UniProtKB/TrEMBL annotation:
This protein's name: Predicted permease
Places the protein is found: Cell membrane
Keywords of this entry: Cell membrane, Membrane, Transmembrane, Transmembrane helix
Pfam family, one: ArsP_1
Species classification: Archaea, Methanobacteriati, Methanobacteriota, Stenosarchaea group, Halobacteria
Organism: Halorubrum cibi
The UniProt record lists the keyword Heme: no
Length: 217
């Protein structure tokens, strides 16, 4: 897309993410983080709703009980490797169907979907093109490097740059496999806020780019 678009994209997306993070931070949503387990130095430590081990252990020490805030279990290297492998396999099984769907959709967009149809759905004549693009990236589970050929094929088909960027942001932030993974960490309300924020950023940046770069690319 060229240096100018790249710099504008990085700057705009970064600023939008910072502003969104600051706004969400004022809502005090720490309680919507699920209990998770982290490992440190071969010890498995259970934490409660976003509190760190130091937070919970510090509170426990203040009350005169050094073991009350956390539950620690020594694990061997073999046990840690086994647990990591099981977790990776579980995530792979969860995401495999969506990977297959994403590859199929990407292939269709790249080689089978007529340019006229893309123009009708995501072209400048459709006022809902940018929101549609931000949501359309959800079922496509590829890395950002994998998104770029798809984005290039969309621009070659005449789709406005802002609409393409909204698609890239949506695909990177709210792909279904990503949401599955985040669902293990976030409660549904926080997950919904996250997804809404990503879509809003995608739409905002997309509309801004369509306005600023209209006729320049």
């Amino acid at each position: 897309f060229g240096t100018g678009v790249t710099v504008a994209y990085v700057t705009t997306a970064l600023l939008a993410a910072i502003v969104a993070g600051l706004i969400i931070g004022t809502f005090e949503l720490d309680g919507y983080i699920k209990d998770v387990r982290i490992t440190a130095g071969g010890r498995e430590i259970a934490t409660d709703g976003g509190a760190t081990p130091s937070d919970t252990s510090g509170a426990a020490d203040a009350g005169g009980c050094s073991e009350c805030g956390t539950t620690a279990t020594n694990r061997t290297h073999k046990e840690r490797v086994t647990a990591a492998g099981e977790g990776a396999l579980s995530f792979f099984r969860d995401t495999l169907p969506y990977i297959a769907v994403g590859i199929a959709i990407g292939a269709l967009i790249h080689g089978a979907v007529p340019a006229e149809l893309l123009q009708r759905i995501a072209g400048p004549g459709n006022p809902l093109a940018t929101p549609i693009a931000a949501l359309a990236g959800a079922p496509i589970y590829v890395s950002i490097s994998g998104m770029l050929p798809i984005a290039h094929s969309l621009t070659e088909a005449g789709i406005p740059i802002g609409t393409v960027i909204a698609f890239v942001i949506g695909g990177a932030g709210i792909s279904i496999p990503n949401l599955i993974l985040l669902n293990k960490l976030f409660e549904r309300r926080l997950l919904a806020i996250y997804a809404t924020t990503v879509v809003t950023i995608g739409i905002t940046v997309g509309v801004l780019f369509n306005t600023v770069f209209a006729g320049l690319l």
